[in-house]
Amino acid sequence: MKNEKGFILAVVLSMTLLVAILATAAIKMSELGYLAYGSERKYQIADTASEYGLNMGVQIVSSTGNCPSANTGTLSTGGVSASYSYFSISGGNYCFIHSKGQFAGASVVKTTIVPTFMTGNWGALVIDSGTVNLGGSGSVAFCDTACPNGGPAIMYIGATTITGGSSTVLPSACPNNPKGAVGNPPTQQNASLPADLTSTYFNSTDIVDLENDLRAKYSVDDTSIANMNSSCKYTGSSACSTTSSTNISCGTTNISLTTCPQVYIQSAALTIGHAVTGKTVYSGGRVTVTGATVDTNVFADTIYINASDNSPEGGVYFARNTTQTVTSSCSTSTNCIYVKSNKQLGTATKPILYISRGGTLFDSNGGPDIYGFIYTSSTATNVNGNIIFKGSFVNDNNATITFGGNASIQFDLDVLNQLKTNLATVLKTPTCGGRQMQSSLLSTKVTIY
What we know:
alpha/beta, five-stranded antiparallel β-sheet, 20% helix
C-alpha cells in the first residue's frame, strides 16, 4: 500500500489534462467555426456586391447598346455596406465586363462577355444603299408601341445618304407628326445583311425563287398553267377587262371567274375594275387594278393599282419587269400605286404584299394609308403626297428614294404579323427590328474568389 500512495493523484492529473485538452479542442473548433462562418459571410456579401456591379454594367449595355464606363459604388445588404467597382473593354460587337465586390478584406471578381445590341433585320425602311431624300415633311418612323425599346427607322447596308433630319425617340415619346428619320436609333447600318435581301425576309433564296414559290402557292406556276382548263386562258392580243365580278372579257372571248379561280393571260393588257374576290391572275402584260378587290393576287409584267374610287384589300401583287422608269406620272412609270384621299390599300387585318422588280411610283392627292409589306428592287422610287405606309418597306437595290409632301413610312409589327399569318410559310417571322440582346448572356459569367 505504501508504494501506491501517488496513483490516485496521477489518475486525477491525467484526467484533468485530458479534460483540458478536450476543452481546448472544443474552444479551438468553436473558434474555427466562427472564423469560417465569418469568412463565408464576408465572401457572400462581397459576392453580392460583385454581382450587383456586374448587373449594373449589363443593364447599361441593354439600355444603350454601349459598353459601360468604369464606375464604383456601395451596396447596403444584410445591414452592412459593401463596395463594388466595374469596368469594361469593348471589342467588335461584344463587351467584356469586370466587376469586383469587397467587404472587410474579402474580394470577389465576376466577369462576363456579352454582345452589344445585335443588328436585326427589320426597320421601317430598309435600303441596300443610295440616297433617302425626306423632303417636305416626309418621315420614316419606328414608333410602334408593340416594340417598347424601339428600332431603326432606316436600316441600310452600304453607303447611304439620308437627308431631312433625324431624332432618337422611343415609341412612348414619338411625336404625333414625326419628321425625318425617327426611331431608336433613327438610322442604323447593318453591313452583315446579304446583297440579295430576299432570303432575309422570305423563305426563298432569291427574287426569282420567291416568284416561283408564290406562283406555286397560288397555282399559277408553269405546271399549273399548262394543266389549266383552256377556258381560263387567253393568248390573243385584244385588251381584257372585267365586265362583272365574275367575268373577264377579252375581245370576243369571255373568261368566267366562277369556274376559273386562276386565270392566265399571255400578253394582253388587263383591267380589273370590279369587286373580284379570291382569284389569282397571271399575266404577261400590264394589269391595272381599279376595283374593290379582296384577297386577289396579281402576277404581271407591270402593275398599276389605282385606288381612286375603291380600297382593295389583301392579296399579293408581283410585278416582274425590271425596267427602272419612274416619272411623276403613273402612265409612264414602270409600276405605280395611286391612292386617293380617304381611300386605302390593304387593311390591318388584310394587308397586302407588294413586290416590284422595277421602278415604282407611289402617289396620292390626300392622306391615305397602305397596310402591308412593300418589297422593291428599284433604283429610283418616288413617294408623293401624304401616303402613310403601315408595315415595312424594303428596297433591295442601290437606289434614290425621294419623299414629297407629308409621305411617311411607319413600322407596324401587328400588320406584319397579320401578313405573316395570311401568307403562312412565305414570309419570315417579323421582329421588333434592329436591336435585340441575347437573353442568355449571363450564362457566360465567371466568378473568381
